Amino acid sequence: MTDKELRNDLKNGRISNQYVLIGDEPLLIENAIGVIKDALKIDNPFDYESLSISETSIEETLPKLFVSSFISARRLFVFRNLEELSEREIKEWQEAFHRQPLPNCAVMTYVSNKENPWRKYDAEKIGGLFPDAQCVTFVLDRTRVRDWIVRRDKRCGLGLAPEMIDYLEEEFESDITGLKNELEKIENFLAEQKLLSGEEMRSLTAGLWDYDKYKFVNTFFYGGKDALGQFEECRSYIGNYAETVSILGRRLVKNATRFRDGAGLSEMLEALLTMDRKVKTSSLFLDLYLGIFLTKKWGVFKKGAAYGK
Prior knowledge:
By secondary structure, the chain is an alpha/beta fold. The protein has helices at 3-11, 26-39, 58-61, 87-98, 119-128, 145-156, 162-171, 176-192, 198-208, 215-221, 227-238, 241-256, 265-280, 286-296, and strands spanning 18-23, 48-52, 76-80, 105-111, 134-138. It has three domains: 3-138, P-loop containing nucleotide triphosphate hydrolases (Rossmann fold), CATH 3.40.50; 142-208; 215-304. The chain has 14 helices and five strands. The longest helix is centred in the middle third of the chain and has 17 residues, at 176-192.
């Protein structure tokens, strides 16, 4: 089933008790969850629950699926991070859902790795493990990315320079989630500059496309003591901590392949995984974790070797 077919079904009142949403764009999956939520007329927090399936016990969760809704047509449970489970664990959840028909609605999300060339076949296999569920596969139409940018530009009155539109299209043609975050950062930036004239704002926007979000990461890995200061300066442009951890992780992997000495890499990877878990659980201490991480581990690849201290 495609995203369009899902929306048509919901519009016509055909709502399944189980959905598996599969794709490599979290934003498209989140939008679909919102449409399902609207179709069920979820108006009360009691009738909606979102949790990580990799951190959830079947025994504790399954009874909740049979509790009647408070106000809405049905309760909605969103089980995220299906991609973090092994095939055996996924089958255990499938068997639990298969034992008897669910009176409420369960949505499972599987976010594919964009760098995996076999993600299409993985999606088909995951969908096949849930015969009782409607499997919805999301595919980004990259030919429409530029049109989407232009419409957003006109709707929000951003006044993006042609160079900026070209940059956004090239940089985010396969990352609609990142594109949304980038446009929101631009909108926020312009909102902060509302005391400036329209011409000045357009000039500032035209210059934003030169911004390099990897600047502080490169400084950090190669021993620049001002990495923490650069991070503070560019934080408003990076968007959220999930993106920050992702940037650090990508550059760590890229740099690690260029050096023979791997001392300290496992320690750094564990620190990144800890922060990733804190991001997912919305920890209040992420500022502290990132600050300590950047302060204690700057210069990991300094002088051509990996240092853990």
